[in-house]
Amino acid sequence: MPSTPTPARPETSAPDGNDPRCIPHKLTGSLPVGEECIYPDYSATEHEVWRSLCARMEQLLPGRAADEFLTGLAALGLDREKVPALRDVSRQLQRSTGWQIARTPGLLDAHDFFSHLARRIFPCTDYIRGEHELDYTPAPDCFHDIFGHTPMIMHPRFADFYQKIGQAALACKDPAVEEGLTRIYWFTVEFGLVKNPGGLRIYGNGIISSSGETLNSLTDKVEKRPFVAEKTAAQPYDIWHFQEVLWIVDSFDHLETEFVRWAREHRLL
Ligand SMILES: [Fe+2]
Question: Under CATH, which architecture does the 20-265 domain have?
Protein backbone atom coordinates (compact mmCIF):
# COMPACT_ATOMS: atom_id res chain seq x y z
CA MET A 1 0.00 0.00 0.00
CA PRO A 2 1.23 3.50 -0.60
CA SER A 3 1.47 4.73 2.97
CA THR A 4 2.22 8.28 1.96
CA PRO A 5 2.51 10.65 -0.91
CA THR A 6 5.47 9.66 -3.06
CA PRO A 7 8.58 11.78 -2.65
CA ALA A 8 10.27 13.61 -5.43
CA ARG A 9 13.10 11.41 -6.59
CA PRO A 10 15.98 11.26 -9.01
CA GLU A 11 16.20 8.82 -11.90
CA THR A 12 18.01 6.25 -9.83
CA SER A 13 18.34 6.19 -6.10
CA ALA A 14 17.70 4.10 -3.08
CA PRO A 15 15.76 4.79 0.08
CA ASP A 16 17.80 5.97 3.01
CA GLY A 17 16.87 3.66 5.86
CA ASN A 18 18.65 5.91 8.35
CA ASP A 19 16.63 9.01 7.49
CA PRO A 20 13.92 9.40 10.15
CA ARG A 21 11.69 11.00 7.50
CA CYS A 22 11.56 7.60 5.78
CA ILE A 23 10.25 5.66 8.75
CA PRO A 24 6.43 5.31 8.73
CA HIS A 25 4.65 6.49 11.85
CA LYS A 26 1.99 4.33 13.49
CA LEU A 27 -0.32 6.79 15.15
CA THR A 28 -1.11 6.46 18.84
CA GLY A 29 -3.43 9.46 18.90
CA SER A 30 -5.25 11.79 16.56
CA LEU A 31 -3.48 14.31 14.32
CA PRO A 32 -4.23 18.04 14.53
CA VAL A 33 -6.71 18.94 11.78
CA GLY A 34 -7.42 22.29 10.09
CA GLU A 35 -7.37 25.15 12.58
CA GLU A 36 -5.55 22.93 15.09
CA CYS A 37 -2.41 22.94 12.91
CA ILE A 38 0.08 25.34 14.47
CA TYR A 39 2.30 27.36 12.12
CA PRO A 40 5.94 26.39 12.70
CA ASP A 41 8.67 28.94 13.27
CA TYR A 42 10.29 28.59 9.83
CA SER A 43 13.71 30.08 9.24
CA ALA A 44 14.48 32.56 6.46
CA THR A 45 16.35 29.75 4.71
CA GLU A 46 13.29 27.51 4.78
CA HIS A 47 11.12 30.23 3.26
CA GLU A 48 13.79 30.67 0.60
CA VAL A 49 13.66 26.94 -0.20
CA TRP A 50 9.89 27.25 -0.65
CA ARG A 51 10.35 30.29 -2.92
CA SER A 52 12.96 28.51 -5.03
CA LEU A 53 10.89 25.36 -5.40
CA CYS A 54 7.78 27.29 -6.44
CA ALA A 55 9.72 29.30 -9.01
CA ARG A 56 11.34 26.21 -10.52
CA MET A 57 8.11 24.28 -10.70
CA GLU A 58 6.08 27.08 -12.22
CA GLN A 59 8.45 27.25 -15.16
CA LEU A 60 7.73 23.61 -15.93
CA LEU A 61 3.97 23.52 -15.47
CA PRO A 62 2.57 25.47 -18.47
CA GLY A 63 1.70 23.13 -21.31
CA ARG A 64 2.48 20.07 -19.16
CA ALA A 65 0.32 20.15 -16.02
CA ALA A 66 -3.39 19.38 -16.34
CA ASP A 67 -5.83 22.28 -16.60
CA GLU A 68 -7.53 20.87 -13.50
CA PHE A 69 -4.25 20.96 -11.56
CA LEU A 70 -3.53 24.55 -12.62
CA THR A 71 -7.08 25.62 -11.79
CA GLY A 72 -6.77 24.08 -8.32
CA LEU A 73 -3.37 25.66 -7.79
CA ALA A 74 -4.70 29.09 -8.75
CA ALA A 75 -7.77 28.73 -6.55
CA LEU A 76 -5.63 27.76 -3.56
CA GLY A 77 -3.80 31.07 -3.88
CA LEU A 78 -0.70 29.69 -2.21
CA ASP A 79 1.82 32.18 -0.93
CA ARG A 80 4.94 31.85 -3.11
CA GLU A 81 7.08 33.95 -0.79
CA LYS A 82 6.78 31.95 2.40
CA VAL A 83 5.73 28.48 3.43
CA PRO A 84 1.92 28.45 3.64
CA ALA A 85 0.13 27.56 6.84
CA LEU A 86 -1.58 24.17 6.75
CA ARG A 87 -4.66 25.67 8.40
CA ASP A 88 -5.01 28.19 5.54
CA VAL A 89 -4.70 25.50 2.89
CA SER A 90 -7.14 23.35 4.83
CA ARG A 91 -9.67 26.18 4.89
CA GLN A 92 -9.48 26.55 1.12
CA LEU A 93 -9.93 22.82 0.58
CA GLN A 94 -12.86 22.70 2.96
CA ARG A 95 -14.63 25.51 1.10
CA SER A 96 -14.10 23.81 -2.26
CA THR A 97 -14.49 20.07 -1.73
CA GLY A 98 -15.04 19.51 1.98
CA TRP A 99 -11.54 18.13 2.50
CA GLN A 100 -9.30 19.16 5.37
CA ILE A 101 -5.62 18.88 6.14
CA ALA A 102 -4.12 17.11 9.12
CA ARG A 103 -0.56 17.82 10.19
CA THR A 104 1.46 14.60 10.10
CA PRO A 105 4.91 14.29 11.66
CA GLY A 106 6.08 12.34 8.57
CA LEU A 107 5.35 9.19 6.65
CA LEU A 108 2.26 7.46 7.94
CA ASP A 109 1.50 3.81 8.37
CA ALA A 110 -0.70 2.68 5.46
CA HIS A 111 -3.83 2.06 7.56
CA ASP A 112 -3.50 5.45 9.25
CA PHE A 113 -2.96 7.19 5.91
CA PHE A 114 -5.97 5.61 4.22
CA SER A 115 -8.22 6.05 7.23
CA HIS A 116 -7.66 9.80 6.88
CA LEU A 117 -8.35 9.80 3.13
CA ALA A 118 -11.57 7.87 3.79
CA ARG A 119 -12.70 10.80 6.00
CA ARG A 120 -11.65 13.44 3.45
CA ILE A 121 -8.59 14.43 5.44
CA PHE A 122 -5.23 14.73 3.71
CA PRO A 123 -2.24 14.06 6.00
CA CYS A 124 0.32 16.73 5.23
CA THR A 125 3.83 17.40 6.48
CA ASP A 126 4.82 20.90 7.59
CA TYR A 127 8.60 20.58 7.36
CA ILE A 128 10.48 21.50 4.21
CA ARG A 129 13.51 19.89 2.60
CA GLY A 130 16.98 21.38 3.04
CA GLU A 131 18.70 23.73 0.60
CA HIS A 132 20.79 20.82 -0.66
CA GLU A 133 17.65 18.81 -1.51
CA LEU A 134 15.98 21.02 -4.09
CA ASP A 135 16.15 18.27 -6.71
CA TYR A 136 15.50 15.34 -4.47
CA THR A 137 14.14 14.53 -1.05
CA PRO A 138 13.86 10.96 0.20
CA ALA A 139 10.54 11.60 1.90
CA PRO A 140 7.56 13.88 1.30
CA ASP A 141 7.86 17.43 2.58
CA CYS A 142 5.36 20.25 2.63
CA PHE A 143 6.30 21.40 -0.87
CA HIS A 144 5.49 17.98 -2.25
CA ASP A 145 2.34 17.67 -0.18
CA ILE A 146 0.94 21.18 -0.48
CA PHE A 147 2.10 22.40 -3.89
CA GLY A 148 1.99 18.96 -5.47
CA HIS A 149 -1.02 17.20 -4.01
CA THR A 150 -3.57 19.71 -2.79
CA PRO A 151 -4.38 21.33 -6.18
CA MET A 152 -6.01 18.11 -7.42
CA ILE A 153 -7.97 17.75 -4.15
CA MET A 154 -9.63 21.07 -5.09
CA HIS A 155 -11.24 19.25 -8.03
CA PRO A 156 -14.64 17.81 -7.01
CA ARG A 157 -14.43 14.53 -8.91
CA PHE A 158 -10.82 13.88 -8.08
CA ALA A 159 -11.60 14.68 -4.44
CA ASP A 160 -14.37 12.06 -4.43
CA PHE A 161 -12.14 9.51 -6.15
CA TYR A 162 -9.38 10.14 -3.59
CA GLN A 163 -11.77 9.51 -0.72
CA LYS A 164 -12.93 6.29 -2.37
CA ILE A 165 -9.32 5.12 -2.68
CA GLY A 166 -9.08 5.46 1.10
CA GLN A 167 -12.39 3.71 1.70
CA ALA A 168 -11.49 0.86 -0.65
CA ALA A 169 -8.04 0.43 0.92
CA LEU A 170 -9.57 0.09 4.38
CA ALA A 171 -11.97 -2.59 3.12
CA CYS A 172 -9.27 -4.56 1.31
CA LYS A 173 -8.27 -7.87 2.91
CA ASP A 174 -6.92 -9.78 -0.10
CA PRO A 175 -3.17 -9.16 -0.68
CA ALA A 176 -3.52 -9.60 -4.46
CA VAL A 177 -6.33 -7.04 -4.66
CA GLU A 178 -4.35 -4.79 -2.33
CA GLU A 179 -1.41 -4.91 -4.72
CA GLY A 180 -3.73 -3.95 -7.57
CA LEU A 181 -5.08 -1.04 -5.55
CA THR A 182 -1.54 0.10 -4.80
CA ARG A 183 -0.76 0.11 -8.51
CA ILE A 184 -3.93 2.04 -9.33
CA TYR A 185 -2.96 4.60 -6.69
CA TRP A 186 0.54 4.82 -8.14
CA PHE A 187 -0.56 5.24 -11.75
CA THR A 188 -3.29 7.78 -10.95
CA VAL A 189 -2.63 9.92 -7.87
CA GLU A 190 1.11 9.86 -8.40
CA PHE A 191 1.68 9.20 -12.10
CA GLY A 192 -1.60 9.90 -13.86
CA LEU A 193 -2.08 11.57 -17.23
CA VAL A 194 -5.34 13.10 -18.44
CA LYS A 195 -6.68 14.20 -21.81
CA ASN A 196 -7.18 17.95 -21.90
CA PRO A 197 -8.47 20.05 -24.82
CA GLY A 198 -4.87 21.16 -25.40
CA GLY A 199 -3.51 17.62 -25.43
CA LEU A 200 -2.14 15.13 -22.95
CA ARG A 201 -1.38 16.60 -19.52
CA ILE A 202 0.01 15.50 -16.16
CA TYR A 203 -2.05 15.35 -12.98
CA GLY A 204 0.04 12.86 -10.95
CA ASN A 205 2.23 14.48 -8.34
CA GLY A 206 4.98 11.88 -8.63
CA ILE A 207 5.54 13.36 -12.09
CA ILE A 208 4.85 16.98 -11.24
CA SER A 209 7.24 16.94 -8.31
CA SER A 210 10.10 15.57 -10.44
CA SER A 211 11.45 17.83 -13.16
CA GLY A 212 13.08 14.86 -14.88
CA GLU A 213 9.88 12.82 -14.83
CA THR A 214 7.87 15.85 -15.98
CA LEU A 215 10.08 16.32 -19.03
CA ASN A 216 10.20 12.58 -19.75
CA SER A 217 6.57 11.60 -19.22
CA LEU A 218 5.04 13.33 -22.23
CA THR A 219 7.67 12.11 -24.71
CA ASP A 220 7.45 9.08 -26.95
CA LYS A 221 9.87 7.25 -24.66
CA VAL A 222 6.91 6.45 -22.44
CA GLU A 223 4.17 4.12 -23.59
CA LYS A 224 0.74 5.58 -22.83
CA ARG A 225 -2.30 3.40 -22.43
CA PRO A 226 -5.95 4.21 -21.75
CA PHE A 227 -6.79 3.71 -18.07
CA VAL A 228 -8.68 0.47 -17.53
CA ALA A 229 -8.66 -0.43 -13.84
CA GLU A 230 -7.94 -4.16 -14.31
CA LYS A 231 -5.08 -3.47 -16.70
CA THR A 232 -3.59 -0.73 -14.55
CA ALA A 233 -3.90 -2.96 -11.48
CA ALA A 234 -1.88 -5.63 -13.30
CA GLN A 235 0.96 -3.27 -14.28
CA PRO A 236 4.04 -3.43 -12.00
CA TYR A 237 5.95 -0.23 -11.35
CA ASP A 238 9.48 0.69 -10.50
CA ILE A 239 9.86 3.23 -7.73
CA TRP A 240 13.45 4.14 -8.52
CA HIS A 241 13.42 4.72 -12.29
CA PHE A 242 11.40 6.70 -14.77
CA GLN A 243 8.11 5.05 -15.61
CA GLU A 244 8.02 3.20 -18.92
CA VAL A 245 4.23 2.93 -19.06
CA LEU A 246 1.68 5.53 -18.01
CA TRP A 247 -2.12 5.44 -18.01
CA ILE A 248 -4.43 8.08 -19.42
CA VAL A 249 -7.89 9.00 -18.15
CA ASP A 250 -10.35 10.79 -20.42
CA SER A 251 -11.50 12.94 -17.51
CA PHE A 252 -11.86 12.76 -13.75
CA ASP A 253 -15.43 11.53 -14.19
CA HIS A 254 -13.90 8.65 -16.13
CA LEU A 255 -11.32 8.04 -13.40
CA GLU A 256 -13.86 7.91 -10.60
CA THR A 257 -16.41 5.85 -12.54
CA GLU A 258 -13.82 3.32 -13.65
CA PHE A 259 -12.31 3.01 -10.17
CA VAL A 260 -15.70 2.57 -8.50
CA ARG A 261 -16.60 -0.15 -11.02
CA TRP A 262 -13.37 -2.04 -10.22
CA ALA A 263 -13.69 -1.53 -6.46
CA ARG A 264 -17.28 -2.75 -6.44
CA GLU A 265 -16.33 -5.85 -8.39
CA HIS A 266 -13.84 -6.60 -5.62
CA ARG A 267 -16.42 -5.71 -2.93
CA LEU A 268 -14.34 -2.83 -1.64
CA LEU A 269 -17.07 -0.18 -1.96
FE1 LIG B 1 2.93 12.03 -3.52
Answer: Orthogonal Bundle (1.10)
